[in-house]
Amino acid sequence: MHVLDPTAEANPTPVSRAPRLDSLHHRSIGLLSNGKASVAPLFDHLESLLRQEWKAREVLRLTKGNYSAPAEPDLIRALARCHLIFTGVGD
Amino acid sequence: MVSSTTLLSTRYEIEDERAAQDFFHEKGWTDGLPVVAPTPERVLSCLDEAGLAPDQVIGIEPVRARPITAEKAAVNAVLAGCQPSHFPVVAAILEAMCRPEFLLHGATASTGGCAVFVVVNGPVRLTLGMEPTFNVLGNSDRASAVIGRAVRLVLRNVLDLRPGELDRSALGHPGKSGYCIAEDEEGSDWTPLAQLRGAPDGVSAVTVLAAGAPRQIMNEWTRVPEEILETFAAEMRANMLHYSIWGGNYAIVVPKQLRDRLHDAGWTKQHVQQFLFERARVRKGDWARVGKRALVTVTNRDEEHAALLSPADLLVIAAGGPAGGFGAIIPPWFGHKSRAVTTGVGVCFAC
């Protein structure tokens, strides 16, 4: 007998990775929090590292309005100017 | 009937139905219970019953843009034990779950561990022999069991919501194995849920709610509607303090004994909605009584939160066995982040 595969199977749309940065020095860095409380201390520490050790040009910290949903379009637009974005989930 | 050559899924050759059990378990394509082998013939019968082409997209999970095709839904419905007659209901449920306001990805991947609670209304309940009375929340009939299970297997196999993978539930609850009931329309003079939410009379419809486990209440010591409903309100307030304070769609299931007492006093579903809208409220300061003092501040302690954003947010469902002063509240996964959705079975009444 034959049976059918129950999984999605379809190949996802191919995406390419963004070019890697040579260095974090003097870059604009985005930190996107999902909004849960435990992200804050992690990002505080990360921001401190980025500013002190990597002399970040800018650290843009934004927080999603709903941690269970995708980031709002205006957040994505604001983060578009960054060279690198960290996103954090803090449970 | 659609030709089997139109099916796109990979085919595997196996010896027999018994071998199918090991095959699907080893692949991780079941919930641990035995499955029915999804042969091309069985899948085609489901598609034929619903009048759906195999490549028809029932819905798209919006966050990952992952389509759920009729063929994949049917394969999983057969796996779950569905007969062809059950499949149009499964398809309607999936369509409702893919509406943006349901927030399918968040609701099903969340650490909060909710399940998709389904209420079926209309003539299809009778056609399928759904049993809305005894043991209604505990596996009361074949159709409810396999339809509920089909939803879970679609999530697992098509959207990769396996525990520890995309399903990040800390606990989950037993409703994740299947959380489908029918409303007892014949045993109630109340307006059926789907009609209250916009479905025309006589149309079969499903309502989906991203929901926590049922919380059972008991009050058989009064005939006063306000006292009966105060017990429901207390359980809703408890959920707000112990789980989530945020308001949204709550469901309550009211079996016949308490339902008759409310009905005899002239209370409609709208009266019930209005009463619980007014009574199911807490203040943030109440958190201090349940161990959440850290969240209470001088500025927020008097902030009032309602379980329902409006009276219509309450889904009042007539269901359950005839004896006993019981009832249940079914809380939302997480306030209003996910909204209940009602849609027709094989028909769009909102188009």
Short overview:
Chain A has 91 residues and is an alpha/beta fold. Chain A contains 2 helices and 4 strands, in the order ββαβαβ. The longest helix of chain A has 14 residues.
Subunit arrangement of the protein = heterodimer
**Which pair of protein chains has the largest interface, and what are the residue counts?**
A-B, 16 and 43 residues
Structural class of chain A: alpha/beta
- Adjacency order of strands in the biggest sheet of chain A: 3-2-4
Physical arrangement of strands within the biggest beta sheet of chain B: 5-4-6-13
- Total discrete domains of chain B: 1
Mean of all residue-level pLDDT scores of chain B = 96
| End-to-end Cα distance of chain A | 47 Å
- What is the number of helices of chain B? 11
SSE ordering of chain A: EEHEHE
The portion of residues assigned to helices of chain A is: 10-25%
Helix count from the secondary structure assignment of chain A: 2
Query: How many distinct beta strands of chain B?
Result: 13
What is the number of E strands of chain A?
A: 4
Identify the overall geometry of chain A.
elongated
- Main sheet makeup of chain A: 3 strands, parallel
Mean pLDDT of chain A: 90
Radius of gyration of chain B, whole Å: 21 Å
Give the low-pLDDT segments of chain A.
Answer: none
Terminal CA distance of chain B reads 27 Å
Structural description of this entry:
The complex is a heterodimer of chains A (91) and B (351). Chain A has 91 residues and is of the alpha/beta class. Chain A has a domain at 28-88. Chain A is built from two helices and four strands. Chain A has helices at 39-52, 73-79, and strands at 2-4, 28-33, 58-63, 84-88. Chain A has a three-stranded parallel β-sheet with strand order 3-2-4, with helices on one face. In chain A, strand 2 (28-33), helix 1 and strand 3 form a beta-alpha-beta unit. Chain A is elongated, with a radius of gyration of 18 Å. The model of chain A has no long low-confidence stretch (mean pLDDT 90). Chain B has one domain. Helices cover 32% and strands 16% of the residues of chain B. In chain B, the strands form four sheets. Chain B has a four-stranded mixed β-sheet with strand order 5-4-6-13. A four-stranded mixed β-sheet of chain B has the order 7-12-8-11. Chain B has a two-stranded antiparallel ribbon with strand order 2-3. Chain B has 351 residues and is α+β, with helices and mostly antiparallel strands. Classes of the chains: A alpha/beta (91), B alpha+beta (351). The A-B interface holds A 1-10, 13, 66, 68-70, 91 and B 7-17, 20, 23-24, 29, 37-40, 43, 63, 65-67, 71-72, 75-76, 79, 103, 105-107, 110-111, 153, 157-160, 334, 337-338. Strand 1 of chain A pairs antiparallel with strand 1 (11-13) of chain B, so a sheet runs across the interface.
